[in-house]
Amino acid sequence: GGARRRRGGGDGGGMAALRGGDATAAGLRLGYVCGVLPTARLAAFERVLFRATRGNMFMRSATIDQLVRDPKTEELQHKAVFLIFFSGQQSFARMAKIADAFGAHRYNYPAKYSKRAALLSQALTRLDELSHVIDHVVARKEALLSSLAARHGAWRTHLARQKGLYNALNLWNYDLTRKVLIAEAWCPASMIEETQEALRRATSRSGAHVPSILNVLETDEAPPTYFRVNKVTSAFQEIIDTYGVPRYGEINPAAFTVITFPFLFGVMFGDVGHGSMVTAFALYLCVNETKMLALSARLRDDIITMAVRGRYMLLLMGIFSIYCGVLYNDVFGLMADFFGTSWTETPPRHGGPRELKAHGMVYPFGIDPGWHRSANELSFGNSYKMKLSIVLGVAQMLLGLGISLVNALAARNALDVWCDFVPQAIFMLSIFGYLVFCIFYKWSIDWVAEERVAPSLITLLISFFMSPGEVPAEARLYAGQERVQVLLLLLAFVAVPWMLLAKPLLLRRRHLARAGYKNVACRPTARDDPAAARGLLRSTRDHDTDEDSVSVASSNNGKAYAEEFDFSEIMVHQVIHSIEYVLGCVSNTASYLRLWALSLAHKQLSMVFWEMVMLPPLQSCRAGGSSWRCAVPLFFGFAVWVVLTTAIICCMEMLSAFLHALRLHWVEFQNKFYKGDGKKFVPFSFQTMVENMDDEE
User: Fold this and answer.
1) C-alpha distances out from residue 369 to 267, 343, 372, 618, Å
2) In the predicted model, what is the mean pLDDT of residues 550-578?
3) Which residues on neighbouring strands pair with residue 38, listed in sequence order?
């Protein structure tokens, strides 16, 4: 068939014009047609040609590897190149029509080799020129995009600042009479002088002829809440703000949470080994805080961000875990012996109890390691931690009641002091304060030395309510216990109607005493009319002619009070509050038993990991044998133990203890005093605007 060349493509991926050609070979004049058509039509095209020419043609085809763009539809398709030899001019016209019917694109393929070589060279030159142009355009585009990307951050920051600036300016008001812009905003009282100095600097820099004036206004609106925090206390403040922002003038629970939260976590997670792992991780985050903050900002992962922001909280949690682990004498679930046990190493014959090495000898700090592997180790640990949980829970709830007293005194609210705090404290101390007293009293007596059976506090608590004037023999602690318990129970019963009725009745009496006053016109509050509360935006004439701004005067420093007194609503609210407190004292005290439960689960899980994973390899090493028989199981056992300890105890159980400590603060502690219905002070800050834009994206 002679030498064949094929090339694909035309100008811009199109095809050349319809052409045919003649050639002379061995004295015969043969015509040929070459072109490209879709691969799917190739077989049908060949059959039609064979029938049209009755077999008087020679055809060769090959599939093009790359996708070819169709010049009409602009779609990429799989195509094949074909070359047909035939004889006769009429055959050429017939084949051209058939090729056009099948959508083939024919190419100009010269018969002479020199012309074909020139055409190929011309095409390659054109391809090289297009390749250089494309490379130049791509390089130019990459350079332009790189320069834009380098300035993208600055543009975003500038746009965020401009957006925030104009949003703030939209809140200003224009006084047509005085031709000035007026803005009302909150500012911390400690920063008034700094704000005035900033205004003076802005006036001098802008070259304004009229200085800006800052006036402090008196308002009936409740101010927002603002606390100064640092990188240590910010995580604890976020915990409090998640529950609710403190009301203005209310004591901030975060000041106590800084200590109580990691301490209660340590009570549940107490272990010297596990606490050391948490402390080491937190120290790494604190030492490399700059790098870690940049990493969290780049990755934007919630878990990494929480760990980095709460690095100092993690550090305190680890330290208190070590402290409580020393108290429990636990190191990875095993009993340690830091100071030497006070008990004899081996029990006497017949399985009797161990004896003290010296009379009155006491282990210096924490639980004596002599309890380890003793028959009553579990019952002793449960009893000790259960009572400790009750003591800590009652102490924290009494702290919450004390904070409520300080809040009431700061607000000069005598009703809250005498009608809320006093009966609540009496009820709490009469029952649960007495229970704590009995716990310490039982701990302070050596019942073995007195040859007496230690009384049961559970029996004591049951008889306290079921048989007030009687004390069973197994619950007796001291002489005169019956009279004390009856008196305390009477005080608790008196405190309930005190909480229930005193405050609503006194409020009703106060309202009736004021009912004789006439309605007086006063300046509307922001609660009634937010627009009218802006004293600078309305003149005195507007307020004098406003007939709607009339409300009942109250004794709240002569300020407006628009709410009506509804005795039934106040009574229902007080009933709900009293029932919630009485039942909550019982449920909240029982809820603190989670401290004992999680501490027990932590110790038992640690012991299971040690005995099931590490102890068998150690026993095989102790049995003797080659070093390889000891080293290989010990290596794999230690690796599995480290993975389980890190994944389950230091991650999953630490998260569980964290959530339980969070619940104890939100529910059991803060419901004694915390309102949490304040508004957070959000100052105008360009940095905050940029961060918010990043979070939105």
Assistant:
1) 19, 9, 6, 22
2) 66
3) 79
